[in-house]
Design a protein that fits this description.
By secondary structure, the protein is α+β, with helices and mostly antiparallel strands. The chain has 20 helices and 18 strands. The strands form 4 sheets. The chain has a 5-stranded antiparallel β-sheet with strand order 2-1-5-4-3, with helices on both faces. Strands 7-6-10-9-8 form a 5-stranded antiparallel β-sheet. A 5-stranded mixed β-sheet has the order 12-14-15-17-16, covered by helices on one side. A hairpin with a 4-residue loop joins β6 and β7. α3 runs antiparallel to α8, α4 crosses α7 and α17 runs antiparallel to α19. The longest helix has about 50 residues.
Amino acid sequence: MSSKLSTSNSPTLEEPASKRRRARRTLLIILALLTGLTTLEIYFLQKDVNAPISNNIAVLALFNIILILLFLMIVLIVRNLVKLYNERKSKTLGSRFRTKLIIAFLVLALVPSTLLFFVASKLFSYSVGSWFNIQVEETLHASMEIAREHYSYLEKNALSKTRKIERFINTNRLYPIEKRNELHSLIAQKMSEYDLGAIVVFDSAPKIVDSEIHSSLSSSKIIAQLKDIILNFGKEDSNLEFQSTTLGNYLAIALPLTQQGENGLRTWGYIVTLSPFSRAAHSKISSIQNTYEDYKRQSFLKLPVTANYYTTFLMITLLILFSAIWLGIYIARGITVPIQQLAEGTRKIAEGDLNFKIDVQVTDEIGILVESFNNMTDELNESREKVEQINEELKAGNIELESRRSYIASILENIGAGVVSIDKRGRITTFNKAAEQILKVSMQEVLGTRYKETLSPAFRLPVRKMIKAMNGQQKEFWEEQVDLRVGENSLSLLVNIQALKNPGWQYMGIVIVFEDLTQMIKSQKIAAWKEVAQGIAHEIKNPLTPIQLNTQRLRKKFYEDKKGFNEVFEESISIIAQEVEGMKELLNEFLRFSRMPTPQPKPTSLHKLIEDVAAMYSGHERLVKFRKNFDPNITLMQLDAEQMRRVFINLFDNALDAVDEDGEIHITTRMTRKPDKVRIEFSDNGGGIAPQDRDKLFIPHFTTKNRGTGLGLAIVNRIIADHNGIIQVQDNHPKGTLFLIELPMVVTVKASAANESAFSKTTSLPF
């Protein structure tokens, strides 16, 4: 059964000043005792002036010094033993080990010291025997021993009977009140069986619990005498197990009665027995004892010598024993004190005090253990500081993440575009407020559900079509404008679908971002038609002015001068016809722009298409040089050949109008870093385009030339947009203009092994 060991009452070092004062006080006490004892001993020895030892003051002083030192040692050892007993009783850590070590040292010293004591005593006895009548002394001594043994025998016999009764009472638990009859029966039986004079049981008061007294004895007198024995029981010795006394012809034996309580054994009463005792034998024993004592008193000179020598032998023996005990205490303290400190340190560390240090100064293996413990506390303290620092960083990181999460959530709630995220199982995980407003669906109805089951077909079907197209082309991004009907409203949405992957490139789902372009498209159309109307009005107004002027001229000439009318008529009619033809060409261009057919892409060689258009301008009147740099990896593309031919014709026309004599036109094709794009760079070294005109370059009826309708580049932009491409204009260095065209690469490519590996690793979306 394990017990919790206490680490309290650990030995501590006293202050030096206090130790010095106590040492001086102890020295004065020793000197006073030495002087007093020596004077007293000389006084008693001077009663017999013939004693040779009476003048040996030096021997007496030495003897007293040894006696005092031995007494001090006994006091110190007893003090430590009592302290050890208290520590063991309070289960102080190390007390058991200290007890075992002291007992071991005591046993090791007891055997040789006891043997030495007896051998020395024997040798001294033979020496003293030549001085005194040894035969008489031995006879008296033997007689005395016989008397004592006889008395001891009677006492042991009486004690044995009493113990048997006591054990029977404890074994059968006869102390409760309800078992008084059984107790009385036992007393009566044992009194008859053991031939006793009386058996009396007292409680701890003491009051009589039960008794059985022989009829020849006076009950009141006997009970009073026995009660005095109980009252004086253990007063002189608290550890007394029994007490024996002679009462007339009887030997009285008193034993405590105990029972097991909550705090251990407790004494609940006493049992006293009277065993018959022969008065004649007692008288003879007393006579022998008196004779022996008379002999001793007459042998006064023998006593001091014998006592001194025996005391010396005893002191030497005790000195050895007590030295062994002291050595055991000292060694045990050197081991247990650091262990107690270690236990205290362990408790402190368990409570969280990692700054605790052990200051016990030892240099042996225990010192290594203490040093290791201190190193461990230092490392634990450093580790705790690191953990606290990391914890603070984590808290700060969590706060930042929470702030960013709240910020992103706020953005999602307030952004004008609808955002819907779908996990890899097809369940909707995000559905913001804009998505609710655009799709007219409540967020609570769709979150956590499968998008195939909750989203309306008007939105779901175009999205599924886009996802299938993205999977079919092994892309992770897709953008498309979708026209759909939500309720009674027709909407135009720009839908963007992006695959979601974690840092390990494992597929997590998709995010759909869509923006309502309905109002913007309407505004753009109105603005575009406004610009077109203004351009058409301006272009129509220009020829109307000369037509009006020539009509007025004809009218005036008709009435004023008939002779010159024919010449004026022909000239005016020619001008009017020319201006009407210009207006007709303008209207035809506008009709072609407004009626641009949907592209019909077919496998087409991009490079051959450019070569054919360039060949049309090879005999141009200007000596223009054509520079071509084609990417050999590009072969066939899905293009509408007729529309793309018109694109390149417009670009060649503009470039030829911009360059001077001996100008250069460069055409370059290449693959972009994105594996699904082809870039076409069309540049010249002409005069370039003013920065303020670049944004207007693709607007219908905007032109920087004196002639033309301003629809050419607008048509180019429209064709490129219909092919899902983009066109941009930049400055060409050192001079000129650079048109950049990017078209989707729905092409047959001479793919390298790296490209094939990249395509093989593309993850298809499970939608």
